[in-house]
Amino acid sequence: MIPWPALSLALGSAAFVLGQSPIVREDKRAFAVLDPNGPFRNGTQLFEPTPNVNLTPPYFQVFDDRFNDILGPNPTVRAIIENDTFAFAHDGPVWIPSTNQVFTGGFLAPKFHPSNGSKVSMFNLNDLENSTTGLINFTVVPLSADVQINNGATLFRGDLLLVTTGNGTLPPSVVRVNPSPPFNDTTILNNFYGRQFIGLNDAKIHPQSRAIFFTDVTYGFENGFLYRFDADTGDVRVIADGFVRPNGIAFSPDGKTAYIADSGESGGVTAGINLTLPATIYAFDVMPDTQSFANRRVFAYIDTDVPDGLALDTNGNLYVGCGDGTQVFDPKGTLLGKIFIGVSSSSLVFAGKGRLLVNADTKIYLAEIAAEEWT
Ligand SMILES: *[C@@H]1O[C@H](CO)[C@@H](O)[C@H](O)[C@H]1NC(C)=O
Ligand SMILES: *[C@@H]1O[C@H](CO)[C@@H](O)[C@H](O)[C@H]1NC(C)=O
Ligand SMILES: *[C@@H]1O[C@H](CO)[C@@H](O)[C@H](O)[C@H]1NC(C)=O
Ligand SMILES: *[C@@H]1O[C@H](CO)[C@@H](O)[C@H](O)[C@H]1NC(C)=O
Ligand SMILES: *[C@@H]1O[C@H](CO)[C@@H](O)[C@H](O)[C@H]1NC(C)=O
Ligand SMILES: *[C@@H]1O[C@H](CO)[C@@H](O)[C@H](O)[C@H]1NC(C)=O
Ligand SMILES: *[C@@H]1O[C@H](CO)[C@@H](O)[C@H](O)[C@H]1NC(C)=O
Ligand SMILES: *[C@@H]1O[C@H](CO)[C@@H](O)[C@H](O)[C@H]1NC(C)=O
Predict the structure, then answer these.
(1) Are 165 and 196 in contact (CB under 8 A)?
(2) Model confidence at 359, in pLDDT bands (50, 70, 90)?
(3) Centroid of ligand 5 to alpha carbon of 136 (angstroms)
(4) Which domain holds residue 105?
(5) Between the N and C ends of the chain, which has fewer C-beta atoms within 10 Å?
(6) Residue having the nearest C-alpha atom to atom 12 of ligand 6
(7) Mean pLDDT of the chain
């Protein structure tokens, strides 16, 4: 563990001074063999392999020295927004570079539950400048009733692109939302040749073709598909199947590799955990002609709960929202380190160079590190 000097975040007399963010260096060899009497665990419990580490998360765990380059010399991680009664930060965070505004989907209850009203909230990272506590506020975005249970989101042609689960008679849909008042929206897709989707979960734009790729997860139903939608021609097609619960999606910077998180192990609020099902990130080659996904292989298996939202940095390292925070893998699938927040994180988003926002339902953490997103 290396203590880092405290950083002064804001200027002036009321400056909020950041506490130290500890770094624990974990030696993979040191826990290769555990005592036969334990402590063993299943994927629902946290893992701090170094004995007698008595730290309260959040902190950093370094499993590979290369993680130090990702963290940089003075990494910090802390909560910047909290609301104990409102899981405002579940999924679908999007950062708007021009305004420093962030949008995120959530649920009006302390824990995520699809029967609790879903809301999209927003906040501005510029507010950190004058915050004396290190915390900032968010507000609920006044969206129309067309947007129900938004899960994944991304930026598309200057608008927010939300993928939804729908609600009651309103079908799941892909919706464009104006990120400025009056936050008007336009639904751009809600069916596959007349057939309804199941519950859209996450979306990304392919870096070269700019087509929209989104996952349709199986919470409550069978089968999980991955779709590609060309917003200009209207063409929608299935480009991968065979998942249990396809969840997060991301592309490598060159657009040639796709990553899909299969959160099959977690059946959500109805089916609970089944440890025999996948908690796996699969990598695929994106076919140059059709952009369908080929050569599926296991990229990584998540040791704590399930993988959910995904993001990549400029060096092609993959950041995964999962049961203990954010896990970071190199392009070959080696675990480099964790932003260990000690609770489940459904999603994450880079907000400019060196700033990673980690959603944890009732809190959002800001990790200030060296890495930056490739987009
Ligand atoms: C995992 O282990 C914990 C603690 O022993 C136990 O409470 C829980 O039921 C286990 N979960 C599963 C899915 O086996
Ligand atoms: C938390 O969210 C609820 C629901 O929007 C709101 O009524 C309450 O004021 C918020 N609390 C804080 C501390 O922001
Ligand atoms: C959220 O939904 C669950 C399940 O329906 C319900 O038990 C709980 O009371 C709801 N919470 C709130 C704050 O509405
Ligand atoms: C679904 O719609 C009903 C009726 O408008 C509303 O009460 C409920 O909160 C909605 N559910 C979610 C998760 O938004
Ligand atoms: C921070 O305070 C300064 C001085 O009052 C003000 O000029 C600036 O606009 C404030 N920044 C934000 C983001 O509110
Ligand atoms: C957040 O809202 C509270 C209550 O309105 C206010 O006292 C506080 O100054 C706000 N914090 C920031 C950073 O704007
Ligand atoms: C919002 O309304 C403006 C003005 O009518 C329109 O140009 C824009 O396309 C709308 N945006 C969305 C996402 O519906
Ligand atoms: C767990 O998943 C396996 C594979 O689908 C299935 O055979 C088994 O019945 C499931 N277990 C439970 C308790 O649902």
Answers:
(1) no
(2) very high
(3) 13
(4) 81-317+349-368
(5) N
(6) 136
(7) 91
